[in-house]
Each structure stands twice: as structure tokens, then as C-alpha cells.
Amino acid sequence: MSEIARQGDRSIAAARDRAPVASLHDYAAVTATPWPAVKLGICVEDEAITAIDFLPARAIEMAADDRLAAEAVRQLGNYFRYPRRRFTLPLAPSGTRFQHEVWDALRRIPAGATSSYGALARRLGSSARAVGGACRANPIPVIIPCHRVVAAQGLGGFMGARAGRGLRIKQHLLAHESFSS
């Protein structure tokens, strides 16, 4: 196991910008996004999507190596053209029971809408900090739309960061969803 993988979710999220392109996961596909500085690495295990990583522009696109990865690439492409479309992919994110509750709640926030960490926490009988931790640990961003959760005042963080590349990705995703028909 690599040093990055042993350090936990927080280090993995922070390392996404610095890590060599293929060091985080074994991808079933790597696909482009509408933003030239970002590609997506898609991980599949046992007929379910287990992770999506935001990769740097230098990542080499890779055609899907199985039916599910191809379908994920197709649905992500549809989302990038028409963000109101819903994903219908089998997901198997690794996480705690509470994280799964948060991730399920995130999937109910429609494209073009947001919820605050506090509002989501009240619905789940938890704290805003715990919801933020579950969002940070989300292994399948975009499909599990943690970018739709914002702070009471401002955007809040994304992928464990409050500035930089992560926050720019969140801004792109929110802008993309709010300007669709």
C-alpha cells in the first residue's frame, strides 16, 4: 500500500493535485471534462463504481475497459452536456453508516440547488462539522454531489480544501448546473 493510501482520506484529497497521475487508483477509464485542467479517473469493482478522482490535465485519457466504466463515461458526458440528467449507475462507496446516510441525502439535492452543511445536519440529526467530514470523505464526487453543499455564508470547502483547485472545481460544477435548461 502506498504512503498516500495509508495516510487516510484527508491526505488523499490533499494529494490529488500533487500525486503522480496513476498513483491513487487503478482506473477503469479516464475521461475529459468541460474544463481543460480537470479529467476524471473512474474506478470500478464488482460491477459498481467505487471512486472517481479529479485528475490533472496531464492525465492521459483512457478508454473504458469494461461495460460499466463505459456507461459511467457516457452518463458523465451526458451530465456535462445536460446537468439536470440523473445518474443511474450502481455505486459502492466505502464508508461508515453515517457517511452513507449523508451521501444518500446528497443524491436527493437536485442539480441547480444547494443545501447548507447546517441544514443537512439538522435533517440528519447531526452536526455541520460531521456532514462536512462525510462530504470530504465522499469517494464518488459529481455522481454523489457533495459540491451542492455550501457553508451558511459562502461556498465552504471542497475535497478538504477551502481554496485553490478544489474550490475552483466546486465553482465550475455549481455554475455548470445553474445555467442549464
Shape: globular
Q: What integer is the average pLDDT?
A: 85
Report the span from N to C terminus: 45 Å
User: CATH superfamily membership of the largest domain, which one?
Assistant: Winged helix-like DNA-binding domain superfamily/Winged helix DNA-binding domain
The largest β sheet comes out as: 3 strands, antiparallel
What can be said about this structure in brief?
The chain has 2 domains: 3-81, no CATH class; 97-178, Winged helix-like DNA-binding domain superfamily/Winged helix DNA-binding domain (Arc Repressor Mutant, subunit A, Orthogonal Bundle), CATH 1.10.10.
Features:
disordered N terminus, Arc Repressor Mutant, subunit A, alpha+beta, 5 strands, 181 residues, three-stranded antiparallel beta sheet
Question: Please, could you describe this protein's structure?
Answer:
It is a single chain. The chain has 181 residues and is of the alpha+beta class. The longest helix has 15 residues, at 67-81. Strand 2 and strand 3 (48-56) form a beta hairpin. The chain has helices at residues 3-6, 9-15, 67-81, 97-107, 117-124, 128-136, 165-178, and strands at residues 29-32, 38-45, 48-56, 115-116, 149-150. The relative contact order is 0.14. Residues 1-23 have low confidence and may be disordered. The chain has two domains: 3-81, no CATH class; 97-178, Arc Repressor Mutant, subunit A, CATH 1.10.10.10. The strands form two sheets. A three-stranded antiparallel sheet has the order 1-2-3, with helices on one face. It has a two-stranded parallel sheet with strand order 4-5. Helix 4 (97-107) crosses helix 6 (128-136). The termini are far apart.
